[in-house]
Amino acid sequence: MTKRRVLLHLLAACVLVRGAVAASSPPLELSPREIDWIGEKVFENECASKNEDLIGWNEGEDFLSLGIGHFIWYPAGRPGPFHESFPEYVRFAKKSGVQIPRWLDVPSFPPVPWDTRRAYLRGQNDVKLRQLRQFLLATKQTQAAFLVHRLERDFAVLVEAAPKKDRTRIQKQYKRLAATPAGTFALIDYVNFKGAGVLPAERYKGQGWGLLQVLEGMREAPDVLSEFVRVAENLLETRVRNSPPARNEQKWLPGWKRRVRSYLQ
Fold it and tell me: Which of 12, 126, 161, 187 is the S-S candidate for 198 at Cβ 3.0 to 4.6 Å?
């Protein structure tokens, strides 16, 4: 794909982003260059900026993770508790004018071609896997635009899930963060990393740790990004304290904090 075609696809994606803004969410005014920068930062956090990590099946998981945002894709007959986001991304890419593999361009989106992690690891030379790699490598910018689009869409759901008395304050904090590319990156990466915080499964002992809880807990601090990081770190510490001991979530906390602090860099 030429640079000119990539730019045209990205501009089309930006139109889709701005056309999907909900009434409760201010539009995100981002240039293609800013969207690309956000995508590279998410790629760094999710994939350590390694192209080989654009596709992976982690040990102990029942799904494939794809793209800069590690979009989830399930095998046939094995839906899980997490939102299956890869089919949604492919639809977004197609609407943005991106050419997608023919076997994905079907009315009923197919399940993962490999039933298990073991089958996936054995199939590293499969034609479909090679095509997936090429597709994901060629569409990083469109993936970034999709993350922006998804934040705008999901924020409307988040606001509806918040107590009415808190909605105006939550919208204000969101707007302050969304006013800069760095703040928008923090919003996008955190919701991709720890969820929106609206589902019952996103809580321990009644306490959530998602984007909703971060925005709820923020004060009117002059440095909105530092305040976002402060609240997020506190919520992650609380999550670990409330977590079932058998999960041993303490081992993940240092990495979680490093990721959240990356928003300040």
Answer: 161
Mark whether 58 and 102 lie in a shared domain.
yes
For residue 66, pLDDT over 90 is answered with yes
Residue 178 · residue 187 · CB < 8 Å: yes
8 Å CB contact between 185 and 38: yes
The C-alpha R_g of the chain, in whole angstroms, comes to: 18
Same-domain pairing of 40 and 134:
yes
The length of the chain in residues reads: 265
Regarding whether 256 and 189 lie in a shared domain, the answer is yes
86 or 202, higher pLDDT: 86
Lowest mean pLDDT among 77-86, 98-107, 139-148, 227-236: 77-86
Closest CA to 44 of 193, 196, 200: 193
Domain encompassing residue 76: 3-8+30-141
Distance CA 104, CA 90 (A): 8
pLDDT in tens, 213-227: 999 999 999 999 999
Domain count, the chain: 2
Token readout for 58 is 């982690």
User: Residue 72 has what DSSP assignment?
Assistant: E
